[in-house]
Amino acid sequence: MNPITYSLCQKPVIGVVMWITSLCSFPPLIQDEPISLAEAGAKISTTFQAPVDKGYGFDLAFEFSSNEARLKDQIVGSRYDEHCRSPVKFESIPESKREGLGRPIPFRIVVLRKSDRTVIIDKTLTSLCSFASSDNRKFRMLGGVELVRGKYIAEVTNLESQAGLESVKTTISLVAGHGK
Fold this sequence. Notes:
By secondary structure, the chain is mainly β.
């Protein structure tokens, strides 16, 4: 996707037609990079290119050994509600409303400009709640970042070990969004 196509996708009539015909598809900037949640400090570092100025979101995917294991899981969570939006403040959610939200999982996100390794973003984001599932996978949003066009390096660090997820394959992606 280039800036001209992206701007046309935002127009009321032509944008709808372009979305319907898949001309506005926006592939992930980072796709399914494995990251371990079994140990604190596990880190991925990968380069990517932001084709347009906009907000992008980090997503997590959890792949369980079976659909049955996914359904039994209480760590990733089984529902999404108003408490799940970034920034997540788990301690402020009433105890009675926590069921099904899963366990909060904090990450440090550092985005550097590739050309000179200048830090553009350095923040801690906490993931909570599953927003989708399919077969033996569950998905969570981690949080968003605003980027201008350019080449970057993303460093994502798991800040806390997560007991109970040792056999779950976890990956991180950077996406352009969830729908138009």
